[in-house]
């Protein structure tokens, strides 16, 4: 599983960080950092939830 | 259950449908929508869409399409009546359908002013069709008057200023959003508008929207008039429950549900139309008109529909709201209230970068951030954990 973020769409609402802080981090510069581009398969449902809660639909899973 | 009907095909309805399939429900799903469009995303309507930076194809919800959900879409004819006892819905075009399970997600509609005119050039903004019509009119570089300085009014004003238009915002209260945020934060929001060239007038009453065929001016309570080519009315919304009068459900500022989102046996509600006691806030009745809640509650309501009564879980989220205005990102989590204890951290009002914490009875209940998403999300977690006010202040003052 690979995570893709469209940084043109990302508005740093940090909801993804709320769901999966080990994978997504919004830092004090207000930019999103993806800590794990290719998280383990065991994290799939968590990443799917992060995709769903993103208000700008900026996150996608590239299989 | 063999047939689930979902009434309302915006975000909450779509998220409920996705959750039903994800949870393994393989029966029939019939989706009834008042609008002719497949589910689309509303927040961009007052921002990027109105600005002309994105178009219809960009705001489709569920980019991968909806075919895999196997839904019988019945769009363009709103539900007109519900018979709870007979488990039957009637659409505005007269067609009827029986269901075993029902998701109510009909959302809300813009509130109208008591004296709102139907003159050409007077708009409310809720639907894609509203946004298209307004955007087309903005291309003519009109003078814009926005009535109401809440979220929609503020975003429309910001977008219009971004397009270089002349904008006046009229607000009945002494400061924008003062009821929820209190006078200090209201003043910060007022200053942001004025810094961006909005003619913001607070504490004013709108007496009349005047014109011949087209709108020409807005007349205020003190007799003053403001020239207008376009008037956008953003004075809140009312839940879409009129069609449920007499259905047997409890309707009181929304469809009243139990703490699990159940409105009656086999009937759940989600999104702007649902009102339920939030167990995380001592059972305070909530009806939330925001994107994140539509997503979270749509999922929860679908699961509730499939779950037995003995295993149903309460829906107890920390509300989350965001609004992008000019270059500021405003986010609130939990309950923000003008009469709560207030503490400002992580910056200051003067910097326009801060988090205001809201406390009540020794507990952290809410936070509002200006350009502080990281910290706001940390406080969301603390609120979910029922953190004390002292614990929150300790985090704030590190």
CATH architecture designation of chain A:
2-Layer Sandwich
Number of strands of chain A: 4
What does the overall shape of chain B look like?
A: globular
> Which percent range fits the helix content of chain B?
10-25%
Record the strand order, biggest sheet of chain A: 1-4
Unreliable stretches covering 5 or more consecutive residues of chain A: none
Strand content of chain B: 25-35%
Radius of gyration of chain A: 10 Å
- How many strands, which pairing sense, and closed or not: the largest β-sheet of chain A? 2 strands, antiparallel
**CATH topological fold name of chain A:** Alpha-Beta Plaits
| CATH topology annotation of the largest domain in chain B | FAD/NAD(P)-binding domain
What's the helix count of chain A? 2
Rg of chain B, nearest Å:
22 Å
Structural overview:
The complex is a heterodimer of chains A (63) and B (398). Helices cover 24% and strands 22% of the residues of chain A. With 63 residues, chain A is of the alpha+beta class. Chain A has one domain (2-62): Alpha-Beta Plaits. The longest helix of chain A has 10 residues, at 44-53. Chain B has 398 residues and is an alpha/beta fold. Chain B has three domains: 3-109 and 237-306, FAD/NAD(P)-binding domain; 112-233, 3-Layer(bba) Sandwich (FAD/NAD(P)-binding domain), CATH 3.50.50; 327-396, FAD/NAD-linked reductase, C-terminal dimerisation domain (Enolase-like, domain 1, 2-Layer Sandwich), CATH 3.30.390. In chain B, 23% of the residues lie in helices and 31% in strands. In chain B, strand 10, helix 4 (151-162) and strand 11 (167-171) form a beta-alpha-beta unit. In chain B, helix 1 runs parallel beside helix 6 (291-306). Chain B is globular. The chains are: A alpha+beta (63), B alpha/beta (398). Chain A binds chain B through residues 11-15, 17-18, 25-28, 30, 52-53, 55, 57, and chain B through 15, 18, 41, 43, 61, 63, 291-292, 295-296, 299, 320, 322, 324, 329, 331, 371, 373-374, 376-377, 380-381.
């Amino acid at each position: 599983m690979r995570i893709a973020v469209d940084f043109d769409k990302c508005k740093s609402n940090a909801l993804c960080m709320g769901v999966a802080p080990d994978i997504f981090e919004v830092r004090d510069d207000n930019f999103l950092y993806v800590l794990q581009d290719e998280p383990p398969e065991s994290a799939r449902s968590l990443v799917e939830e992060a995709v769903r809660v993103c208000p700008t639909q900026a996150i996608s899973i590239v299989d | 259950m063999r047939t689930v009907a979902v009434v309302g095909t915006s975000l909450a309805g779509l998220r409920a449908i996705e959750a039903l399939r994800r949870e393994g429900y393989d029966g029939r799903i019939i989706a009834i929508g008042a609008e002719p469009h497949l589910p689309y995303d509303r927040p961009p309507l007052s921002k990027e869409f109105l600005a002309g930076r994105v178009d219809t194809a960009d705001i489709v919800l569920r980019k991968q399409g909806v075919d895999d959900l196997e839904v019988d879409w019945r769009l363009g004819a709103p539900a007109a009546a519900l018979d709870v006892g007979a488990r039957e819905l009637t659409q505005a075009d007269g067609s009827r359908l029986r269901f075993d399970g029902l998701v109510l997600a009909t959302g809300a509609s813009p509130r109208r002013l008591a004296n709102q005119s139907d003159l050409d050039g007077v708009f409310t903004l809720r639907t894609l069709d509203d946004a298209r019509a307004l955007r087309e009119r903005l291309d003519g570089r009109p003078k814009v008057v926005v009535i109401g300085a809440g979220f929609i009014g503020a975003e429309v004003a910001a977008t219009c200023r971004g397009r270089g238009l002349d904008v006046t915002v009229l607000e009945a209260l002494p400061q924008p959003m003062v009821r929820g945020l209190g006078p200090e934060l209201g003043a910060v929001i007022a200053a942001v508008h004025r810094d961006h060239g909005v003619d913001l007038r607070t504490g004013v009453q709108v007496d009349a929207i005047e014109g011949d065929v087209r709108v020409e001016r807005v007349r205020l309570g003190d007799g003053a008039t403001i020239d207008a080519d376009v008037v956008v009315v953003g004075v809140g919304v009312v839940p879409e429950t009129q069609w449920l009068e007499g259905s047997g459900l409890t309707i009181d500022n929304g469809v009243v549900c139990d703490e699990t989102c159940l409105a009656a046996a086999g009937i759940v509600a989600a999104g702007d139309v649902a009102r339920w006691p939030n167990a995380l806030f001592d059972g305070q009745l909530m009806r939330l008109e925001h994107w994140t809640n539509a997503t979270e509650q749509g999922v929860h309501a679908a699961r509730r529909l499939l779950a037995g009564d003995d295993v149903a879980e309460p829906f107890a989220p920390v509300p989350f709201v965001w609004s992008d205005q000019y270059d500021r990102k405003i986010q609130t989590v939990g309950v923000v209230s003008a009469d709560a204890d207030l503490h400002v951290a992580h910056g200051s009002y003067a910097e326009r970068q801060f988090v205001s914490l809201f406390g009540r009875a020794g507990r952290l209940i809410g936070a509002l951030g200006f350009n502080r998403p990281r910290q706001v999300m940390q406080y969301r977690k603390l609120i979910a954990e029922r953190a004390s006010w002292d614990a929150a202040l300790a985090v704030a003052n590190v």
